[in-house]
Structures are given as C-alpha cells and as structure tokens.
TrEMBL record:
Pfam families for the chain: Glutaminase
EC number: 3.5.1.2
Protein name: glutaminase
Family, as annotated: Belongs to the glutaminase family.
Gene Ontology terms for molecular function: glutaminase activity
Entry keyword set: Hydrolase
Reactions the enzyme catalyzes: L-glutamine + H2O = L-glutamate + NH4(+)
Species whose genome carries this gene: Limnofasciculus baicalensis BBK-W-15
InterPro entries referenced in this protein's UniProt entry, alphabetically: Beta-lactam/transpept-like (IPR012338), Glutaminase (IPR015868)
Subunit composition and interactions: Homotetramer.
Residues annotated as signal peptide: none
Amino acid sequence: MTSLSYTGRELDINLPVFLSEKATGNRNRAIAYLMLNFGMISEKIDETLDLYFQQCSIMVNARDLAMMAATLANGGVNPITGERAIDEHYVQDVLSVMLTCGMYDSSGEWAYRVGIPAKSGVGGGITAAVPGKLGIGTFSPPLDAKGNSVRGIKVCKQISRDFGLHLFNVAKSEHDLKAWIEGDELIDNW
C-alpha cells in the first residue's frame, strides 16, 4: 500500500529531515534493538529504521492528514477513491494504538478528554479518526510542552465536545455532524 491509497496523492519525503532523523535517531536505534531482542521485529534493523525515518519525514498538509484519518475511520478504504489502503483486520489495531499512545505523553489525558484515536507529529500535525464517522486533520506548528499542536488539540476537543464524538459518550449531541460537515449548520463558537 502507498501514500496514494490513504491520501489520494503521492507524498514526498523531505530529504534533509530524513537525513537529520537518520543521523540523530539513536534513541530509535536503541528501541529497535530492544524490540529485536524480544523478537518483535526482524533482524533487518537498518532497513527497518530507514523506513521509519522516511515515514517521519513525509511532507503532508491538513487535507492529507484528514484523508488518512478518514480512510482509517472508513475501515481502511479511502472514502474518495474507494481504494483499500489497509486491511480491515488491522484498522482496529491501528486505532487502538493511536488512542492509547498517539499523543506522546498526553495520550492518557487525550483519551480521557477527547476520546478520539489520534496521532500527532512534532511538525504540528494531528490526524484523528472517528470510526464510522469522519477523519480530522489539523496543522499548526506551535507545540505544547509534550510535543503536540496547541491549536490542533483545541480543535479536536471542540469537535469532540460539540458533536459528542468521544468514544465513550452516551449522550446525544445537540449538533448535527453531517449538516455541519456539509456546511448546512453553523455553530456559534466556531
């Protein structure tokens, strides 16, 4: 599967970022060797790390982040192209890891307050997937002390609250999510 499957377009790798990640990724190397020790990854450490560093260096925009999330929310099928990006069997695993670990050291608080599987990046992006409903992509580089986009967190919290999207929410939302997405409903505090 390629980035095209998720986003509908080919994505480029930022070569200077890749080379920097590769040159300074000693912590990731240590983690990779620890994983190898426990039989969690193959012995192709350098290849695995190169792939990881390339993935960390992919250039995306907010639309790409939203399309990736929408693809996961749609069971692994890109909702625009109809192309399967990831086997349906793995979507639950990916979303579970996103919910529990995707927001760095804020993951527990995120799960409690926002309740949407998400992954942030140190460039300021957040991709968040609400299974069966929608994908959210935000990009705003100012980061908090834990490495997450300050504005991206606020946007996701607001959307989750206004539309009752927290995974454990049992109350009915006062707003119509579909009407808002289609532009038919305006919300005062937006």
